[in-house]
Protein 1
Amino acid sequence: MDQAGPTEFGVGNGVEALSLESGQAPAESQKQQEYVITSAHAVDKDSWQQVGLMLVTGFNCAYVFSFSNLMLVPLGWAWGLTCLAVIGAFACYANWLLSGLHVIDGHRFIRYRDLMGFVFGRRMYYLTWFLQFMTLLLGNMGFILLGGRALKEINSEFSNSPLRLQVFILATGVVYFIFAYLVPTMSAMRNWLATSAVLTVTYVVVLVAILVKDGKANKTKDYNIHGSEVEKVFNAFGAIAAILVCNTSGLLPEIQSTLRKPVVANMRKALMMQYTVGLAVYYGISIAGYWAYGSSVSEYLPYQLSGPRWGNVLINSTAFLQSVVSQHMFCAPIHEALDTKFQKLDEGMFSKANLGRRFALRALVFGLNTFVTALFPFMGDFVNLFGSFTLFPLTFVFPSMVFIKVRQLLLPPPLFLLSLSQEILEVELVLVNRDPIGSARDLLQLAAQMATLGGLQPLFSFGVISDVQYADIPDGHSFSGVPRYYRHSMQVLQGAISKWNDHKKLQFSMNFGDIVDGFCPKDKSLITVQKVVKEFDRFNGPTYHMIGNHCLYNLPRSKLISLLKLPSIHGHAYYDFSPCPGYRFIVLDAYEISTIGWPQGHPNTLAAMQILEAKNPNSDKNSPNGMVGLEKRFLKFNGAVGKEQLLWLDDALKDSTKNEQKVVICCHLPLHPKAASAKALLWDYEDVLNLIHSYKCVKACFAGHDHKGGYTVDSHGIHHRVFEAALECPPESNAYGYIDVYRDRLSLIVIYTYRNCYMIYVPTNPRGAERLPPCIVVPESDFYLRRLWGNPDEDLIVQQKYLVTFTVGYEQKNNIDAAVKKFSENFTILLFHYDGRTTEWDEFEWSKRAIHVSARKQTKWWYAKRFLHPDIVARYEYIFIWDEDLGLEHFDAEEYIKLVKKHGLEISQPGLEPNNGLTWQMTKRRGDHEVHKFVEIMATVFSRDAWRCVWHMIQNDLVHGWGLDFALRKCVEPAHEKIGVVDAQWIVHQVVPSLGNQGQAEKGKAPWEGVRERCRKEWAIFQSRLSDAERAYYLSMGIAPRNSTVT
């Protein structure tokens, strides 16, 4: 029975490297790093409770006073409650989804536009920027209008001749400006959240009390939906827009950026608070208002309250004050973008220079926003409608696009993804200069367009099949004994044609050669070839053929070129075609230089004979006897493309590069030794590979010939896929497929079962494990000691959370014994022995539970590079990499960890006693501080995230680590906040010359002098390498290199 399944394989330089939460960063994605820059605002500081409270109070601002009128009056009870529930649920799920995309491939995206730009390219970055900032500016206008109404209502309680609304709008703008100036960031709102919560509870309690009173007194409630049919439809759309606006913000990544790690789990906790407590409150007020006043409920609920003056004043006062806090959350991304662009990032937010700049920036934002709102105070409905159009893609479309883009690459096998390169989306900004009603239609078109451009719809698709080798003869075997089903191969082809036609979207098909078998009787060769070609002609589209050796066994190439309708170039069997502007297919003739297919005295035949005579010592040139390795490819049934075809290929690749086309190369013979057996390779495959490697446009090479199939990705990221032979499919099985071609990947859907198993290739598995099913892959380990008996899941009574390593010699046993006792059972102890003495340590009871690694005369960085791979120590939250000559009398490990977490330090060390031992001035303990900044490499403590970066920076041949401390800041951001010395927990450097004395005396120098000289050399080498690497990176990005940051 046929069974289809997607099989995908990925290009290492493309977006397939994306993965949720973890993984390695894709090389190509470095092109997007310009989006992920330092922020002027605080990142990674707030608790989920703080953010959850901000969401609840922010969304529960006085804006809810309009919801009864906006959301329920146009819809009525049934549709209103249904839309509230459905849109609320969808908004919750969409934000839940988006929160999971905050970290992709180790990159943390603190801005929505950065995320979209990273995944889809620069134009998507700017589209997101436009939609988000329009949403936020419109939302801020709504808040200004709301605050103005609240002030106007307060004024009306005390004045018989109230001022115009515009006056209160201007006053609101001034208050918002002052608040934004004094409270510059979202994180800085923490001190106002308690006040905000009190305000929210106050106006909710008073409001609900008055609503209940008014609702009971109102005996003439009218819940009918009024207006013409057209008005009802448009009002209903407006209501849905209002529900959408009240449920989401379009700035979730920016809010999430303030959270401490784990950012995804913490954000989802905050979202649950918003969509339970928060939703209950603002839905509750909306429903209560509609219940109390029916269809006559005001667009600003306090207008209708019948309560005492103090009640109305209190409600409107708290509403105004709460709107001040709420608008700040919605306006924060705009402030962050301007502050990051124009403020001095090396100075504090309240430095003299930044205070002046912030004054101008905040004045600009609120001046323009307030002016427009005062000019058009009637535009509340427009704000809701247009805001919903900008929020819809931000909330529902974009997260789904990113999620699908990422999750496509994490599907269970059989999965086979060819990802080519990260592309820039061709998305039209359809919302510019359009009226909001027309934008609704355009938004639907935009969603459909983005579905294609975002990777949901292929650009085109085509069918693939190889080595049909049909012959009307009994079944047989290959020379190696593999069964061959000559007649059944026609049924496989017929099944392929039927499937391709059923697909209805295949633009063409490709046959990778050998449509008839060499054992076909020669008097039936022509009619057999015609029969197979006739079957291919049943396909609803063109078929592009390649000539294989079995084809040439039956008919001369001149006849085959005509029968197969090859788009021949001067009688050659190589050609190219372009199914769409962005792609080019190049079909090579693997038998241009060959002993078969050409007349006996043809120059190409003679050239092939010379090659075989030189390379194959056997009289039977189809025999590989006595040949070794890749020499076995020089067999008579193979061939070469030759110099003339290589020149043609070079011209084709130049033209493709000029026209920015991706190239797929097709050839009957495989082009890479890791994708096929040596006996199946093209003779001059090395020349072809060298040529295509000199260009960046070639993305994949497809071939046949080697019937078992194969796959590899070469050193330049080019995918080589050899297709299985239809000939070797037993009855009731198949071997064919089709390929969906996207802007950034090829997805091969294979339909074959003849090996009674599916090939597994999962590119998101760790390198080397791609052929394993993901659920069996265990990429991380630990140093936990396990029993040799019992149940594995009962081995660990305690799972240590921290790892401590000392590089030791036995002479320091007493000092290490005292040091180890400072660490609780929460710490795994690992000793690196540079003197080779390990068993003597068993005199200490703790040593029997410690890990011992021995290698003579090596440093701690040599050990760390070889034994502390980030995947090995991934279970540990913090890794201590310490010297042996440290006094820990004043050190408490558990308290140290608490301080590190409190201050958010990713790289740290204890303070060093200033009056004992030898140390740098900058690392000496300061008695009036808990922490201060800078660390050296003597007693460093790394978080696991920081260590993953630092481990990769440690050079394999530089063993002393000198200069590393000055480069540690490259592994955390912002470094000035996440690197520090913990002064409240200090140690003593005892300056014991242990390993330093184990050098070798040379040229009259003492052993320690040789070691010290090596240290200095390594420092210089490391500085040079890092500086050169930075410079090379910037040049590769087309950026003029900045001055090296290595000091």
Note: Residues 122-156 form the longest helix (35 residues).
Protein 2
Amino acid sequence: MEGSGDGAFDIHWQAPNVAAQIGGIRAALEATLNPRIDNNVRQEALQHLEQLKQQPDAPQYGFTLADDYSLDNAIRYYGLQLLEFSVRYRWSQYGNAQVEQITKWVKCLAGSLRQQDAAFIRNKVAQLWVEVAKRCWGDGWMDMDGMLVNMWERDVNVKGMVSKTFVLSVLEMLSEDIMVNEDAVAGLRLEVLGAALNEVMLRQSFFEQQKRPKMLGARQGEQGWCSRMCELFVDCVKQARLSSGSEAEEMTACAIKALNALRPTMSWISLDAAAHVGCIDCFYLPFHTDDVALRTAATETIHALAIREYRPNWHESWSILQQQAMQADRIALLRETFDKLVCGPGEDDAKYTLKKKMSELLSVLADGLSSHPDLLASDKLDLPAFFDLLLHVLQSTSLVVSIPVLHSWSKMMSVQDNAIIDMVLQALGTLIQTCSERLLRYENLPVDTNDEIVEFLNEDFDTMPERHAFLGNYRRYCSGIIQSIGRSRPIEALQHVLEQMRNMLQNGPYTGGRGFNPETWSKNSPSVLQFDAQFNVVASALKGFSLWCVDVSSLGQDEPLYTKAESDRANAEQAIQEWSYTVISIHVDDPEVAAQVLQTLVTVLRIVKPRADFVLHVVQHLLTMRLYDDPAHQSFSDAVKSFEVLRVIELQKLALVHADELLEVYSELEPRIGVLAEKNSDDPRLVWGYKAFLFMVIHRAKGVDRTIRMARLQQMVKPVYDAWQDPGLTSAVGSLQSTCDMLGMGDLPEFYQTYRFDQAQNWSTQQLDEKGQAKQQRIKELNDRLPLRMTKSMLAVTTEKLKPGSEESEIASAMWDDIVPVVLPSLLQMVRQAQAFHNMDNWAQLPDELQMVVKRTLQDRFWQSGISSESKDEFYARISGSKTSYEGFASVVRGTMRNLREQGYHILYLMTKFDERFYSVHDLAKPLADALFADAECLSANHLHPLINLATGLVSRCPPHHRPSFLPPILIQLFTKLDGKISAEWAAINASNDSSAREDDELGDEMRTESVLRQLTYSMVSFVAFLLEFDRQPNSPANGTNGHDASKPTLHDLVLSEPSILEPMLLYCTHALRMRDTRCCTTITKVFKTIIPLFQSNTAPAPQVREFICTEVLKACITSLNEPYFADMQKDLAALIAQIILLYQRQTNTPRDVLLSLPDMTAPRVDKAFAKIAKATSERQQRSLALELLEGVRGVSIYEAGKIARETPKKKDNALQQYMEVEQRPTIAQGDEAGLDGVAGLFDEV
């Protein structure tokens, strides 16, 4: 048969002779499915089947094959695929007669479905029906509803339930595509399809009651599909209960199918209509049965209705539905059902899934009560039974089952309704007990722990990052509940939790006399983890108590509760202080437990109003607490060192709050601090930490004469000034070689050659001799002698929580005024040389084998949660065990350079707190930018996060009047260097993914590399968003804080109007659209959607930016749109493409030219799409038009033709997904020394 002139099929249709084709189709299909067939043959078969789809008479072949019952199911299914291809990709090319013919074929196929047809055949016909309906129902195909009604009313004795299940499938897919999903085709006709679907779903009487305007005329008869489906569902459930065997199974399957069709409908149907039909009454019927699948489907459908967003105009119907769902008999039914679902970890997936779904439903119902307590007015609710059920589910040994209701309990703690308060008060005992028990860090327990909670966690989570994120959220909710209890019932709560902690200290194995042994100590032992959980319980309760104290302070003296509240507060504070005295008297040898006791005591001092003698008693205890180190046991020794660091930090916190009390005993403090500093003289972190503590006391105490104060403070910081004034330091940092000489690494190549590093395969097992270890120790000592640590410590305590304009702030600025200009030149050079060390060009003079040794030296060792094959403890044990090996030496070398960089970054950030005095330093911006970014691209990805953090601090604190001169050099180099670095790393990752399979170790390294790169990419993407949104924040300098002029140009304006900044920023954003990270790409699409409307004028640089967006950005969007990885981002990318077309098509033809360059794209098609986009009234319509325009080329790269097979992304359990969104950054542990504050907390202010 010949095709018509326009390439479509001839409407004068006759059944084609497909006999000759069937053999070829069957052989081709078998070739594609047979794993033993040669790949070349398989590809030829696929090509043949694809070519058939392109033929003009493909629809005829498709119908003929699909309608022939004598053929194999695979061939019939392929026939349906031929028809589907014609509908999806050729519909716009067909005339009215051809459209009518295809519609007729689809109707014929639907009407001839049989009971014995395979389910995938029946489903495909329903899908084909929906594809046609989306294109012509409502304004062309007007009798569709009547046809569905006719099929629905067919005698079940003739064809069974086939017709009804077909109609249910059609209705389900129509609801999904038109109302729920972002379907491109449906989006083009959303108004018509939405109105038609709404009309056919509801009864005519409902519209009459609502006094709705005239309908489309799409409905057949009085009854709507919502009531028809509910009636069928009820009938099927009844029949299933009354029958048995295959008949019961068929009725149950049909009931589940009805629920599946109703579920998407419940997400959009009018709540008045849902109440009118009586949906809730129907959906609870399955709970009278024992069928788990049926009850699960019912739970999901009730949940879809209950979770609908509340709106005031729906209040009455929303309340009716909520109250119907929570009637006393139904709560009893839910309790009975839940109790029957007894299953251990991994025993019964169906029951376990139902338990999770029921918990989600109960959570939604509880949230409805919390947000609208007026629901309690109904006399049909059994509130005690409902809250008892919530407590019952909360205590489930599956935390995944428990967490939805736990989240709801955390919300209910703040509800002020009396009835809910009464219910919450009755539950306090169970709540605090359950939450306290579950603050345990389950992720630190061994996987094989004999605990049902751990066993369920092992079943529920495949990766450690997911488990960590989930457990972090779970503990956060538990802590929030305990905090709320501590605020509402502070005295009872504190008495309970503090007594528990005291008992653990008195009776637990935390001293040598009760079984403590440094040899077997582990911070993940059960006893340590249990105390950690109790410590977090106490911390939450104390936080709640502090909030209660704030509440008490807000009471007026004339209020009735004032006297009692003040009395209760005084009694509580006295009780807490007495408890503290008791705890102080208990000796502890366990370093982790001692650290948490110390933190608890400091927290107590910060929230109560202590007597001066109590403050001094606690401080004395902090100073005299002694743990005896045992270097023979590495993990214990490291914990003792960590305790010493924490002691310094907590003392500094006390100095901020109680400087006046400490000043009174300063003459006693000073010698004691001197003893501690001398004791730890080998650790400059502690030495300068203790000195900083004394500095804070003098700086922050009131009543000290300004002259005396200034003199004493200047004396304390004089070592910092003198160190940076040293001419030897200035000359030593002038070049990379002299810097290496200063650090004892000037002869590093010779050392490597002497010890034959290039010949050692496993550096971790190759040990250094005494001379080599002496060299290693010398490098450490020279590193410690640098003035970085002292400078950072003194700057940090000087600037911590300074109030602008205060006397302390003025003294701090005056004191550092002369020091900052002295520090900066050498500091910048030091940072620059530390980065240059990583530039392999600086080692080019070495032989190739030594260059490889240097490159290997610069490779970090780090552990990453969920990727590393060993546990974190095993990783640290391996690192500790290799300190005197070749790898340990390399660790000291790279750690030394990282110390120079990151401490330098921290000092620079702290200097920005002096505002004008820092930013007004003459000609600082260019040397600062060079020091930070000249060799930044040579650093590994995990070392660039602190650099971005520093850039964020430099930008955010820059006074607006300094921005035009200070920020451009920094931002230009930041975007230029990091764009090049990140793009190159992604290119390497993509090339590696395309290569052959790797060994497990190599694959693990690549996974770590990719994970770190994703985080770096997101950091830069977030930095772009920060630049554009910063001045919108209420506390930004441009909004008038810090004494700056709010009339100055905003950061947003500077970035978008200065071409030298805008160009590299746009380049990075464009490249980010092609980086395979959904989170980053989503953020960048939002950034572009924000800035695209700003470049519609003809004033420079708008025309140039507009052309760039219309070429490079548009191409990047189209290319990403066509890649399988970005399947979940099609909505965002299509919206961006549509926005470019909509806003720029009048100023430039570039978008049109770019689209015309695509394969098979014609000018009429592009022009028609542009016109429709210009007239579209919603963003969804614009997105749909963009997707329709690119429908034929999606799956084809803009730069290279070729089909790309779409991959279905793995879907996560919705019950878990919302509780795994806190911990975004992967947990990375460095194998080298990481400083007092740690790399991750580089700019945390101590």
Note: Confidence is low (pLDDT under 50) at residues 1-7, 1038-1044, 1195-1211, 1222-1246.
Protein 3
Amino acid sequence: MTDTDGGAADPESAQAVEAKMVANPPTGTDAPLAVPVEQQKWPGWPEDNVFRLIVPVTRPKSGIKKLEKEMARLKGKRDDIKNQIGEAEREGKISTNEVDQWLREVEELEGQVADINQDFQSMKPEEPSAATLVSFAVSGYNRALVCCSALPLCRSVCCSGLQTCPTTLAAALQTCLGLPLWSAALQTQSSALQTWILALCHSAIPELDEKIGSFTYEAESPDEAAFLVAAIEFSFEFCADSTSSQTQLAGDQILIRESSNCCSIIRKVAKKLGEANELMSRAGALDPIATVALPEPTVMLSMSHRPPVGIESYVKETVGYIDGGKDIIGIYGMGGVGKTTMLKSIQRYYSNHRLFDLVIWVVASKDCQLKKLQMDIAKSLELNTLQKSDDEPTCGDKLFKYLKNRNCLLLLDDIWEHLDLQLLGMAHSATKQGQQQQQQGQQQQQPRKAVVFTTRSETLCGRMKAEKKIKVKCLDPNQAWQLFKENSDEDVLSSDRGINSCAQDLAKECAGLPLALITVARAMSGKKSWEVWKEALHQIRDEHEWTTVCLPEDSIVMYKAFKLSYDSLENDSIKECLLCCALWPEDYEIHKFKELIPCWIGCGIICEFNVINEAFAKGCSYLETLMAASLLERSSRPHNYYEADHVKMHDIIRDMALLMVSELKGNERKWIVKAGIGLHNLPRQEEWQEAERASFMKNRILSLPEYKASTFSELSILILQYNHLTTIPPSLSASMPHLTYLDLSNCDIKELPTEIGSLTELQYLNLSYTDIRSLPLEFGCLGKLKYLLLRDTYFKTVPNGVISNLPMLKWLDITQQFPVCEQWWDELVRFKGRHQLSLGIAIYAANLESLNVLPNVSVWNLTMSGLSSEFQMLQWSHRLSDNLECLTIANVRGDKLMMNASVDCESSFRCLKTLIFDRIEELEKSWLNGIGFDNLRDLYINCCYKLKNVSWVLQLPCLNLLDISDCWEMEELISNIENSNSNFGIKMLTLCHMKKLHRIAHQPLCFSYLEYMRVHDCPRLQKLPFGVEILKSRLKEIEGDRTWWDNLDWDDESTKDSLTPYFRD
């Protein structure tokens, strides 16, 4: 090998470069194929080495075949993993994030290989050649080119496209090739298109061995050896040349061949082959962790990670559109087909995938006002700038300003009319504000705003300018039967062929409508007699009964299902409870203990009890029955939600209930329900003067008209809560002489008319959260009044004898009146009612003893405040504690709090369910002495700034909820387990605003029942108190700040992968 400039490389340098090449072989996806180097003694050159370079020949066709073979292996492995996941999913498991990522990479590679094949098929047939044109990469630098041709017996090495050539590369070339002039030029070279001739080889002729498919280059002198070693050192790659075009480099008379499509394909093949090998090597490690167990479902239609039967394909389709850039998607279909369930699945998906900064859920419902939607969005965002006095454009501007720099996904459930998305703060390409944003920042990517809505109308999808419309259809027969079985008792279905046959026929009668299938299946669950199943099938097929109902065909199917379920309820009381739920607005989340059960009590459905505790227990039993039948469902309230508090009625079930009580011909009931539809005035008199029950709650009614006496002679229940009423007309009482139930809570009423005393049939009166400050003397004439609710009404006076002389009074709630005026004490001491009075009250701690001695009074709900002694001891008697359900201790001054039983007996607190410590700022320790909270369910501790720990909670065997906030000195929750049970049985744990908290406990605790965990503003809490074993329990959700979650310490990253699907911020 002879240099054109006469320079020769130092053989010692050649050996050094060769040694370096062997010690540090080329790496990376762009590195060439490994090249074997044989060392031999050079004849006549003592102590020096001979270098034989064996370079594999690469042609596109052979390379593609090799790649296809590797891809076939990879696809086989992919199919095996998918089969494993499929089997695991049938057992209620899901794949990990690592597996999902691997599958996505394989899919992407498969598409890229298909593109390479298409390019190759479009090429001309290869022409045989004896030499090789190589495209190669210098690792860490840019592209370079080696051109070799056996025909003119010359070799050239050229470097093109180098934007910069580092000193190390120039120095190495100078050492290897003895080219000081070129080395200097390389150091200063800056043009990306300039070509540099590095060396010319005149005598190293390659020999092609067709059997092994390689060229052999044998160096005949040390400078040839140095050149070949330098070529390998800088990742020069040799491959077959099929190009025929040539370029003449002016002045140098050197032939340089141009790069061709062939070489481009060879490069791509080599790179993709490396990627396929890498994916194949990773696949082995995926097998042991291919799946993770999910918790067992605890409720019928819980939001699991995989959508319910028949919904999954729709969810995937919608997610594909969103990920593909579609910004407005309409989902439509008949009522009860699963649109809301589908939307919930989409919400859960994007809560765990960070495509959007905010995922907002709001329910529109029929007759919903735009202003209400705006306020609901603001509430979900915890945005306090929107005011009730703001008009719609103002609210829209405030929402827009808050959302404009955020990527947002708005999920609108159940819309019935066109909505201006711009007024909901969603500025995208379809809105004027969105177009202005695009014009102002064409070069800067604008935050994305996407909207997915559900509706029953395809036409509305068009009016909303949906870019994609997805129709949700009823289930096919196989899916319908699967859903039916999932919601019934499969042991019963398999126990009798006749029952199984009837069940399949019942499923067919539901016409594939998911809500109907679930309703019927739940109604029949537990029915073990073939005769009962046969009768149910006869009822649902009774054409005579359904032809008298003037309903469209799709509503008939649902009404049949509802009627069957309704008739299957065990008694009339439960049926009446169900119908009462329709008095609330559509999609309203009803508080069980503040709204629903009190309504059942007031309506007389629950009436046989001694103390109010028994009535609430009966109400909870009825609720469980209705939820088990899927006629009521658990709420999905966000943020501070504890699921035991609220329920809701599916809008279709509500429609069916209202049909039954108001609209069907021949119906004996006459109800009018106009709740939550934005009314400013009551309906015309003729629309409801024959009604038995009337609900106008949650409207904007400002005043009531004057009516003549006995205008509403049949009316027994009137609900006006949550309106803007300021006065009650005197004629109201005379116009409704048989009224037994009146709810005026959450209105702006300041006083009651004296005529209120003429409502002699009144049994239930709710005046909570009004501005009333006193009761008229005539109030004492309400001789049948049983239930009087006056929560958060700050009475200044109570006329003598007004309360104490109400003979039928059984429940009086004056909680949140603090302090109660002295007249209340007088009335309670003199109370002469026929029944024991269940009392809710707020007092000073100094009055506790007075409460202990009240005759014929049972305390049900108690708030105490104003403890002043440092070692305050609270004495509890049986009279005070035995029926107490809720206890709040607030504004205590002192660092210790001891709760003692009376000297003569041990206090039981057998009914206590809720305990609240609020704003006990100096409290460091609290303990119980002879007191057991064996049935305590919920514990709230707030603003106890110096409280160190709550180790004593382990002594509460039935505790469900532990909510601790603003305890600034608390470093750990449980500091001493001792002999306590290490199984911490809570269902929900909430920890907020505790900057020193760094752990739950220093000893292991078992969270066998934990479903929800919320952590906010606890930056030092860097480790969860459980690992992946929690998935074997009931975990549904972990809520917290995204930064907190990302910075948690994990014993194993696979644990984070397993728990991440349960996290939301």
Note: The first strand starts at residue 37 and ends at 41.
